[in-house]
Structures are given as C-alpha cells and as structure tokens.
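Shipment paperwork, digital attachment
Item: protein structure file
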Amino acid sequence: MTVEEAINILYEKHIGSVVLIDDDKKCVGIFTERDAIRLVAKNIELNQPLGNVMTKNVITIQENSSINEVRKIVLTHKIRHLPVVNQEDRIVGLLSVRAIVDQFFGLNNQNC
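Attachment content:
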C-alpha cells in the first residue's frame, strides 16, 4: 500500500489511523492523520510504500488494562490511537482518544 492509498482510506472511512498487522495479526506499524499532515507539509512523495513512513515501534496496551493505564500511556507518549493486544500480542482492538471522549460525553460517534 502506498502513502497516498492510506491517506485515502483515512479520508473515505473517516478514521484517524491505519494499523498494519502481519499474518499472525501482530501490530507491525501505525499510520495516523498526524503522520499524513507531516508528510504533506514536508512535501514527501506520497507514492512510496507506507512501510517507509509508518511508525514501526508501535506502543500497544493489553486488553485487560485499566483506564488509568491507558491514560498514562496516552499522556506520556502524546498519542491519540492505541492498539489493544491480547496475551499473544495479537491485535484485538484500537482505542482512540476521540472514542473515549465521545463515550464519556455520550456522543455515539462511530467515526473515530
């Protein structure tokens, strides 16, 4: 997948990130709206493979983590999208700050 294709997915699906997984469903990268803005602002070629520009050392959280653990990771690393993994490090979900805020305020926005 190219960077341009990933940006189109973010736009068309109204989502804030794309998580890349391997054949074992383990998270190998993440590409976010912030990444897209950074690349466009720096005039980086958008026809290159997404793997060249994605974040590769992805910060994840275990599925049984508390909201306080989520809060600490989000604040410490200044991130808005946090892949959720199980005991085998396979992705089982994705937390977004937007979804948490929407849930808190009762805004049933499904486009997070």
